[in-house]
Amino acid sequence: MKTKPAPNYDPIKVQLTPYEQEIEDSIDETAPLIHASAELLTEVRLAAKNTLKVIHGGKRDGAGRKPREYVRTTVLLTPLVREKLETLALQHGGLSRAVEAAIIAQH
Questions:
Q1: Inter-axis angle of helices 79-92 and 95-106, to 10 degrees?
Q2: Which residues, other chains included, contact 98 with Cβ-Cβ below 8 Å and sequence gap of 6+?
Q3: pLDDT tens per residue across span 31-41
Q4: Is the confidence at residue 57, as pLDDT, over 80?
Q5: How far apart are CA 46 and CA 43, in angstroms?
């Protein structure tokens, strides 16, 4: 990707199409600039801010990980307890279910 224009490029010498030349000729450089009121500028800035907020950056609705019913937890067990847990897992259908059953059984 080129980041600089060619060294011989001169925007004044660029040939315009007839349509572009018509636009250029229709501009009255002697006409006074129209200054907007403070209220109008505030309204335009607010509208632009609201529009840009929707299309530029920030989080998108529905993006990210979805909430889950369960919470991931890591525990360290001795090899003997791990063997017992694996035996319970065969009965309950998984390690998480076995841990849940063991904890619920304690209360």
A1: 100
A2: 85, 88, 89, 91, 92
A3: 777 777 888 88
A4: no
A5: 5
Contact 89, 95 (CB under 8 A): yes
Q: Do 87 and 102 contact (CB within 8 A), yes or no?
A: no
Question: By CB neighbour count within 10 A (0-12 exposed, 13-18 middle, 19+ buried), where does 70 fall?
Answer: exposed
Residue scoring higher pLDDT (61 or 23):
23
For residue 85, give the nearest of 96, 74, 71 by alpha carbon.
96
Q: Which has the closest alpha carbon to 77: 89, 86, 68, 66? A: 86
Q: Kindly give, in sequence order, each residue whose CB lies less than 8 Å from that of residue 10, ignoring residues fewer than 6 positions away.
A: none
Note whether 91 and 98 are within 8 A (CB): yes
Structural tokens at position 7: 């060294």
